[in-house]
Q: What sequence folds into this?
C-alpha cells in the first residue's frame, strides 16, 4: 500500500531542516481546553512523526494537567514558529492518549519505541515528584534509570492526527490553508488553498 | 495612589531584557477557544504593558478569527518561551477587545496610542485584503499610510488582564505559580508558590 505524504509535511520537514541548528526549533506550543473551559497553552517537544504518517508524536507525563484536559476534549492546536526561517505552522487535530493501560498492543509498541528513543536524562523526569504540586523537597527521587528498562507507568505518548494546517511564511507573505477530508474508503485526502495573510 | 507591581512582572521584564538581542523574543503564542469549541493558537507580538499595570497589549485586525472567538469566550492563555534564557511564562487571563466602536473614550485613547506606537509598516497591514479569505490578487491595496492619520477601523487593541502566571525556568528547574485574588476593595493581590516542574 502506498503512502501519500501530506502536502504540508514537506514544508514542515524543510523548516525543521533549515532551523536544525537551533535547539528550540523542535519546541512548539500546544493549546488544549482546560477543565474550567478556558484555554491552556504550553511548550512541548516534537518527537517526530509516527512512521510514514503525518501523525505527530509528543511525550508527556500522565500526571500533567493536559492529560485530564485531553480526556475531556481531545482537540488541540499546535502553534509552531520557526525563528530563523520565519515560518509558522498552526496544526489543528485530535489527540490520542497512549498510556501503559492502553488495550491496543500495537499502540503500546509505539509508546515503548518512543520511550527508548528518548534520552536517559529525559526518561528520568518521569520519576520525579508530581508535576504541579507544591515543591516540598530539593532531593530528586531517582538519579538514574536502567537504560534497558521499559516505560514507567507515568510515561505517556500523545499522537496528534492533523485535520487542518495553516501555514504562514512571514518572509514571503505566503499563507496556505491545508484541509483534510476523508475519502469514501476512509483515506485522508488533503486540499490546499492560498489565503490572505 | 501607589502601584503594586505584580511579582511575576519583574521576572518577565528580566527575561525580555536578557533575550532582547533576539527579534523573536517579543513574539508569544496566544491560545483562545474557537467558535467550533476547539482550541485555537497563533503567534502575536507583545506591544508592552498598559502604563504601570500588568495588563498586556496586543495589536490585531478586527477581521481576524480571534476577535470572533474572543467575543464568544474572552479567556486566553499566552505561552511565551524565551529561547536564550530557557524561561517559559504561561499567562492566563481575560481579554478586553478595544475596537473603534468602543464607547469608552479612555479606552479609545489607549487604542490610539498603540496605533501611533506601531511602525508605519505594521500600520499598512490593516489596509490589506481580508485575512483568511482566498488570495485573489497579488496587488497590495495600499502602499503607504499618512503617518499623522489615526487608527483605521480594522485596527483593534487587545488588553489581557492576567489572573494566573505559571513560570518555569528550564535551566534551574525553578517553577513558580502566581495566582491573583481580588481584595475587598477590589485591588488585585498576587500570591506565589513554588511547585514541582
A:
Amino acid at each position: 500500500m502506498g503512502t501519500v505524504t501530506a502536502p504540508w509535511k514537506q514544508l514542515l520537514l524543510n523548516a525543521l531542516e533549515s532551523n536544525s541548528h537551533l535547539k528550540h526549533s523542535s519546541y512548539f506550543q500546544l493549546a488544549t481546553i482546560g477543565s474550567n473551559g478556558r484555554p491552556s497553552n504550553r511548550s512541548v517537544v516534537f518527537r517526530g512523526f509516527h512512521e510514514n504518517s503525518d501523525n505527530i508524536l509528543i511525550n508527556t507525563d500522565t500526571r500533567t494537567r493536559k492529560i485530564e484536559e485531553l480526556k475531556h476534549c481531545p482537540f488541540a492546536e499546535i502553534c509552531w514558529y520557526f525563528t530563523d526561517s520565519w515560518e509558522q505552522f498552526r496544526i489543528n487535530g485530535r489527540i490520542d492518549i497512549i498510556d501503559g493501560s492502553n488495550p491496543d498492543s500495537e499502540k503500546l509498541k509505539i509508546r515503548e519505541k518512543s520511550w527508548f528513543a528518548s534520552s536517559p536524562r529525559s526518561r528520568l523526569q518521569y520519576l520525579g515528584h508530581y508535576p504541579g504540586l507544591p515543591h516540598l523537597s530539593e532531593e530528586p527521587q531517582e538519579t538514574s534509570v536502567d537504560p534497558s528498562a521499559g516505560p514507567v507507568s507515568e510515561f505517556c505518548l500523545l499522537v496528534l492526527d492533523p485535520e487542518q494546517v495553516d501555514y504562514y511564511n512571514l518572509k514571503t507573505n505566503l499563507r496556505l490553508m491545508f484541509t483534510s477530508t476523508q475519502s469514501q474508503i476512509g483515506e485522508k485526502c488533503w486540499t490546499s488553498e492560498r489565503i490572505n495573510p
Q: What stands out?
A: The beta strands of chain B are 27-33, 39-45, 56-61, 75-82, 87-98, 155-169, 175-182, 188-194. The helical segments of chain B are 7-18, 65-72, 105-117, 120-124.
